[in-house]
Amino acid sequence: MKMYQQTLSLNQKRRGCHLITSEVEHALPQISELKIGICQVFIQHTSASLTINENADPTVRVDFEMYFNKTVPENDPDYEHDYEGADDMPAHLKASLLGNSVTIPIRNGKLALGTWQGIYLCEHRNYGGSRKLIISAWGE
């Protein structure tokens, strides 16, 4: 069994969902050495998240942002955690709904994503800053 791990720092991105599949693939080229395995991508933040979804039509990512803004609104007077700005507590909730990691099979040296699938970084803050990911891959 082979195991690889790399940290990837992403530059600050605007609020919304961003395809990062190619950045993940470039950060851990050793994936190409694995015939069969698993890749896990983990984000080390509580106000951004990761998910896998549509990689072709960018309006899907726009609709994701719209849906989550409707579902988890800013300026809710019931929020107690509000000292970091109106987008902070909603960002934590959105990140918990989507999650902090994705797991992808590796087949013949490549991420075995479906034809229309890509890895999203979902930035839930207006000014979230750079984001760090830990990418781990293991297999044979």
From TrEMBL:
> Sorted alphabetically, which InterPro entries does this protein's record hold?
UPF0047_YjbQ-like, YjbQ-like_sf
Q: Tell me the Pfam families matching this sequence.
A: YjbQ
Give the domain of life.
Answer: Bacteria
* PANTHER family, A to Z: UNCHARACTERIZED PROTEIN YJBQ-RELATED (PTHR30615), UPF0047 PROTEIN C4A8.02C (PTHR30615:SF8)
- Assigned protein family: Belongs to the UPF0047 family.
Q: What is the designated name of this protein?
A: Secondary thiamine-phosphate synthase enzyme YjbQ
